[in-house]
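Appendix B, example 12.
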Amino acid sequence: MTVTAILIDDEHKSLAILKNKLERLCPNIDVIAETQDPEEAVELISNLNPQLVFLDIAMPGMNGFEVLQKIPKPQFEIIFVTAFDQYGIEAIKHCAIGYIVKPIDSQDLIQAVAIATENIADKTALAKNTQLIENLGIQSFQQKKVVIPSQDGLEFVKVEDIIHCQGIDGYTKIYFQQQKPIMSSYSIGHFLKLLKHPDFYLIHKSHLININYILKYLNEGYVVLEDNHKLPVSRTKRTDFLNMIRSV
């Protein structure tokens, strides 16, 4: 499947490296334009309607997120390109959007392009991009939404509605405040990274909980959550866990 792409980065050298790697490693990518100017990037995207945009985050004048916010109904897949930017990467991961870190690793690029190509066929870009834009305007972690790939497609859920995640044979079952549980094909390790925040605590290798839903702690080493789940706290984590909840 041939994919039309636009490359956006304020550094000429970075653009040249990315274009060269795409030509050598990702022959299905047809680069139809490139620019170092964020304002021009908005025009190019609007006029050329690419299927994929490689978008640098840290650019003077207008960063990558601001470029995205200027595009009405952004229906293209995005691969963000960034030097390590924790805030940026966390925001992107919450919405299941691709990213690669500078200096660009060849295997990371190949994998990101392969996933983007699959996603183009699934036509989920608009929903994910819209959610990212919404999240960028929300300061509270609990108020943000995360994208959860499930058997039925993509689920967009508020962090504050997640009570806990249970790892089951490489899958993860997510329990919510006001909806039925979702089974995701992603492992609990994925959600540990996705929900990396003081409000979430891995009490056991198979249980990641939202501490805002703790109803009580039992002396025999269990927590009871507001949905009445009684979950074990690993012996190795009990002291740290108790110190944490006492300090909240």
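Helices lie at 12-25, 38-48, 64-69, 86-94, 106-122, 125-136, 188-194, 238-247. The mean pLDDT is 89.
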